[in-house]
């Protein structure tokens, strides 16, 4: 199988591990910097170029590892591969959906998946009443396009929440306000979904003095055995978003597990370290199964 690995660098742990596992199984895998790709439309047929080299029909499958700040261009390249019949581990539509936290929560809430109570607003005048509807402060304020714990703030009072919201709206930032699940104790869960299975899970705990459990913010992680309900939620969320591979973040509350967000390009390093599992190998196995299915028609 010939695989295009859409990423900006092989020096990233997750990208390197996927390439390593693909090569170990005798697949050809090539790093494709999607930021150097162009799509040519019109003429006899649309074409995809990496610099000056046409790569339209060079791969049986692609694995997108698209960075947050280049989602639009990356998804456009993925879409063109899809239109040319190349299997992708994440649909272009799924990538753009998952990158917008509001769209993700709107869709999954409509699909009856329990999500953290969330407020989407551009009206600071009604903020106090709306925060009361969330259960009152403290609340979490997030940038819609934030990642790795960046752009996530804890407001311990309505007054501080108003100040943060006023500032962000003045800067023309898209934000959402979420209920702070105090009983979670600064912990959340990451369930890694490949296809229709959860292949690895971990519990992430925040560093002392921080409410964010992200590993990039100094948090710690340990292996986790998720409940049947948590597994069902994660698999269902990934399916509805149109992703084949994703990291699903949940938080445990007094009312059961609640979905925080879905990551379309989840990292492997912390999860493989915490669980001892070969997550990269699971990704390559998923590609093998689906390319065989595609070719059988």
From TrEMBL:
Top-rank taxon, per record: Bacteria
Gene Ontology cellular-component terms listed: cytoplasm; ribosome
InterPro entries on file: ATP-grasp (IPR011761), ATP-grasp_RimK-type (IPR013651), ATP_grasp_subdomain_1 (IPR013815), Rimk_N (IPR041107), Rp_bS6_RimK/Lys_biosynth_LsyX (IPR004666)
Keywords: ATP-binding, Ligase, Magnesium, Manganese, Metal-binding, Nucleotide-binding, Protein biosynthesis, Ribonucleoprotein, Ribosomal protein
One of the Pfam families matching this protein, by short name: RimK
Reported cofactor(s): Mn(2+); Mg(2+)
Domain ATP-grasp positions: 105-288
Biological processes per GO annotation: SOS response; translation
Gene3D superfamilies: 3.40.50.20, ATP-grasp fold, A domain (3.30.1490.20), ATP-grasp fold, B domain (3.30.470.20)
GO molecular function, one term: ribosomal S6-glutamic acid ligase activity
PROSITE patterns (alphabetical): ATP_GRASP
Protein name (Swiss-Prot/TrEMBL): Ribosomal protein S6--L-glutamate ligase
Lineage: Bacteria, Pseudomonadati, Bacteroidota, Flavobacteriia, Flavobacteriales
